[in-house]
Amino acid sequence: MGYLAALSLVGGRRGGVMAAAGVATAFAVALAVALIAATELEPYIDVGSQILQAIGSLYFLWLAVDTWRAGDRAPQQEDSPTVSGAHTFLRSLLANLVSPKTWIFYLAVVPSFAGHVPRPAVIATLGVTHIVIATLVHLGIVTAARASHGFFEGPSHRLRTLMRLFAAGLLFLALWFAADALNLV
Q1: Residue 2, exposed/middle/buried by CB under 10 A (0-12, 13-18, 19+)?
Q2: How many angstroms separate the CA atoms of 69 and 49, rounded?
Q3: Number of helices and strands in the chain (H, E)
Q4: Is residue 156 a contact partner of residue 74, using CB atoms and an 8 Å limit?
């Protein structure tokens, strides 16, 4: 969510909305996999989780470096043509597809509410409800970030400091995912 706020500050409303769409799409993919996994893929979930953690660690490290660098760029004017909607959508989609949090939620948490016998209809209903609510929250974050844009247009150190804090958070996630993938945590 912090990433959405930072992206909205630097990339404008369009960047934030496209990133939120990427998150929703990743959630939909994870839900589809959860529906298949409820009956077919259960033996492979642990290995898949470790692979995703390793990939996620590298991807979040890249995001941390990119976010750190973004702090040196000036905020974009609203709906700037220099902000690629496809780029922000893809980044957000990939970040959520390699996030173990997404997969754990859809492969473990959501099905746990379906009872002892996995029920695809219940899993689908709960998953779609989550996607709708999460997307509304994400769009609210984008709107709030854009509303605070004026504060960050002032002294450049404000945006730089905020972006560096977001970068530090992403670096923490990268290290956490790496430690978990290596069974250090």
Answers
A1: middle
A2: 30
A3: 8, 0
A4: yes
CA 50/CA 180 separation, integer angstroms: 8
Residues in the chain: 185
Radius of gyration of the chain (CA): 18
Reading the chain (185 residues) residue by residue, the pLDDT tens digits are 777 777 777 777 888 899 999 999 999 999 998 888 777 765 665 666 677 667 777 877 887 887 788 766 655 554 444 457 788 899 889 988 988 778 877 877 777 676 665 578 888 899 999 999 999 999 998 888 877 766 766 656 777 777 788 788 888 878 887 887 787 76
The strand ranges marked E within 24-173 are: none
